[in-house]
Design a protein that fits this description.
The chain is mainly beta and 286 residues long. It contains three helices and 18 strands. The protein has two domains: 151 residues, Lipocalin, CATH 2.40.128.20; 89 residues, 2-Layer Sandwich (TolA/TonB C-terminal domain), CATH 3.30.2420.
């Protein structure tokens, strides 16, 4: 009996150890390899950068996508200059999470789920209920992530279902060589020190994140949702430029003003202060 109990305990320990070894960590900054990816042409993606932060409890994916304008000049869900930044946090504890997505005419809510398997694969899903010019619509996105080449390559199988049809894409990302030190324990290596870097979503790096005022005009028409502000931060952590790239027009100016008044941790690369560009996300709720 003791032998059986010993073997059972040993088997459990081996299983736990194997799971821990296979538990992949996707943290880092990833650049889309458009040449080796198979993208649905309706995505109109010119470039994409993902900033991923993973802990034991959750994984946050900040995405900055540059899209080509559609033949009609940008009509549809991707308007303006074709730039779409997003930041979503998924729970790795088996819980659903909610997030406000889009802004203005395409504002809505997303229900997020994530599962990290013992095989090292990460399954993400988001169900978005958004408002469009044609009325309410549901968009479902499912992704399977898998690391390759010793963690230097990320392969993403992506399916998006919309009322207009299904899009299937096989996306290949490469990990950026430089790992940046921001004073919170992160560090990096790089062949040469750049004058500036791109760092994805920056809310978590703020030492003082100013809260925007809710404009009376926006409140009068019940404008709400996320506003994404692209900022440039100098080597001392000061915001030197801020420009809203998405969100309701009546909320953008307030978000830009708040971003300019915010302060961030200085970013060092090989001990040298560098400029940082990224996104600050503000959520306006009535």
């Amino acid at each position: 009996m003791k032998r059986i109990l010993f073997l059972t305990a040993a088997f459990c320990l081996l299983a736990i150890s194997a799971f821990a070894q296979n538990k992949a960590n996707f943290s880092g900054t990833w650049e889309l390899d458009t040449i080796n990816s198979k993208l649905d042409e309706r995505m109109r993606v010119e470039s994409m950068t993902m900033k991923v932060d993973q802990t034991e409890k959750d994984i946050t994916v900040g995405t900055f996508t540059k899209r080509a304008l559609s033949p009609d000049g940008g009509a549809g869900m991707n308007r303006g200059d074709g730039t779409t930044p997003t930041a979503l946090t998924y729970s790795l504890l088996g819980k659903e999470t909610k997030a406000e997505v889009g802004g203005g005419a395409t504002a809505g809510t997303a229900t997020l789920k994530a599962a990290l398997g013992a095989d090292g694969k990460l399954n993400l899903s988001s169900v978005r209920d958004v408002n469009a010019q044609t009325g309410a619509m549901k968009i479902t996105v499912r992704e399977t992530w898998e690391l390759a080449d010793g963690g230097k390559t990320l392969k993403v199988s992506r399916t998006m279902e919309t009322p207009r049809g299904t899009q299937n894409s096989e996306m290949v990302f490469t990990k950026k060589d430089a790992v940046v030190s921001t004073g919170d324990g992160a560090s990096s290596r790089t062949g040469q020190t750049p004058k500036s870097i791109s760092a994805g979503v920056l809310n978590g790096k703020a030492t003082s994140l100013a809260k925007p005022e809710y404009p009376a005009a926006a409140r009068a028409v019940k404008a709400s949702g996320a506003v994404n502000v692209q900022v440039t931060i100098d080597g001392q952590g000061n915001v030197i430029s801020a420009s809203a790239v998405s969100g309701h027009p009546l909320l953008r100016q307030a978000a830009e003003k708040a971003a300019r008044e915010s302060k961030f941790s200085p970013t060092l690369l090989e001990g040298i202060p560098v400029k940082v560009t990224g996104i600050v996300v503000y959520n306006f709720a009535l």
